[in-house]
Design brief:
Strand content: 25-35%
Order of helices and strands: EEEEE
Shape: elongated
Oligomer: single chain
Number of helices: 0
Distance between the termini: 32 Å
Radius of gyration: 16 Å
């Protein structure tokens, strides 16, 4: 089983995009009956109004874990 996870991109501003999230890949052996849970990070919100005090938000990290719980892959998010 090969798992690829990507963290959510950070929110951008009027003159540029936010930082990209990490890309992580792992290969694992699997057993029948194991349940996998996938958590997907969302892109950060965009800056509003173009003023420096109105900052954009960071993205959300993405995770994959199996029953146990055992963390298999974690991909960090980009900054806003």
């Amino acid at each position: 089983l090969t798992i690829e996870a990507r963290g959510g991109q950070g929110g951008g501003s009027y003159n540029g995009g936010g930082g990209l999230g990490a890309r992580m890949i792992g290969t694992y052996s699997t057993t029948a009956g194991v349940i996998y849970t996938i958590v997907v990070g969302q892109m950060g919100l965009l800056q509003v109004g173009g003023n420096s005090q109105n900052s954009s938000g960071g993205g959300g990290a993405s995770f994959v874990y199996s029953s146990g719980p055992t963390l298999l892959v974690a991909a960090g998010a980009g900054v806003g």
